[in-house]
Specification:
Elements lengths: L8 H19 L4 E2 L1 H8 L3 H9 L11 E2 H12 L5 E6 L3 H7 L3 H4 L2 E8 L8 E2 L2 E5 L3 H7 L4 E4 L6 H10 L4 E4 L12 E4 L2 H24 L2
Helix pairs in contact: 1-4, 2-3
C-alpha cells in the first residue's frame, strides 16, 4: 500500500468485520475462499470486497481466491492487532466492569493494564485480577507505563474534563462510551461509541417489520 494513498474511513470500518469472518473460517478449517463465497457469508458484494482489499495492495489470486490464514494475518497487521496497545479503563461502574471482564480485547492486541475511579466504594475493588486505583493516582501511574488508549466510562458531565486530563498526559487514543460526540483541544484520536444509537436503529427496523407483517396479514 502506498504511504501517500488515503484509505476511506468506510473501508477501515469494514476491516474488523473481515477479520472476524476470517477468524471463523480458520476455526472451520477453511483454507481458501473466493470473494464470491466471502460475499455470500458477509452479505456484501464480491466487488466491494475486492475494492476494499485492493486499497491495501490486494491479496487474492485469479482463479484461486484468498488464502484465509494469510489474509487474516495481513488484516490483523493492518489493524495493529500485533502492535499490543496498552489500555486503561476510566470509570469502574457497570460499563467499566463489563469492559474489564471482556476477554477478547487481549486477543485483539489491547492489553488492559489499569482501572481507575473516584468512587470510594469501587476504589480498591479487584476486577478481573486488577485493583481499581483512584483517579488521583493516574498521573503517577502514566509516568511509569506507556498508555496508548483510555476507555472513558465516566459520567456524562465529567467526560470532557477527564478526556482533557488524560490527553494532556500523553494518551493518544480515547474510546468514549459517554453519550456525547466528544471533542477536545488536544491532538488525539477519538472513537465515540453510542450503544443507544444501535439499539434505536434496531427498534426502528423491528417496528418496520411488525408494520409490514401486519399489512401482509391484513391482505390475507
Amino acid at each position: 500500500m502506498s504511504g501517500n494513498k488515503k484509505i476511506s474511513m468506510a473501508v477501515i470500518r469494514r476491516l474488523p468485520r473481515y477479520y472476524r469472518y476470517l477468524s471463523d473460517l480458520l476455526k472451520m478449517d477453511i483454507s481458501k475462499i473466493s470473494s464470491k463465497e466471502l460475499s455470500q457469508r458477509m452479505g456484501i458484494t464480491a466487488s466491494q470486497i475486492r475494492q476494499d482489499l485492493n486499497c491495501f495492495g490486494g491479496f487474492g489470486q485469479q482463479g484461486y481466491g484468498y488464502n484465509v490464514e494469510s489474509l487474516f494475518n495481513e488484516i490483523g497487521n493492518i489493524l495493529g492487532v500485533n502492535d499490543k496497545f496498552n489500555v486503561v479503563i476510566l470509570g469502574a461502574g457497570n460499563m467499566g466492569q463489563a469492559l474489564a471482564n471482556y476477554s477478547n480485547f487481549e486477543k485483539r492486541g489491547f492489553n488492559i493494564i489499569g482501572i481507575f475511579d473516584v468512587n470510594p466504594d469501587l476504589v480498591g475493588k479487584e476486577i478481573n485480577g486488577k485493583k481499581v486505583l483512584h483517579f488521583d493516582e493516574f498521573e503517577e501511574f502514566i509516568k511509569n507505563k506507556r498508555i496508548d488508549i483510555a476507555m472513558l466510562c465516566v459520567p456524562y458531565e465529567k467526560t470532557p474534563s477527564v478526556a482533557e486530563k488524560v490527553a494532556s498526559l500523553g494518551v493518544k487514543g480515547l474510546w468514549n462510551f459517554s453519550p456525547m460526540d466528544l471533542k477536545i483541544s488536544h491532538d488525539v484520536i477519538i472513537e465515540n461509541v453510542h450503544l443507544s444509537d444501535s439499539l434505536m436503529v434496531l427498534g426502528y427496523r423491528l417496528k418496520e417489520k411488525l408494520r409490514k407483517d401486519a399489512l401482509a396479514e391484513a391482505k390475507k
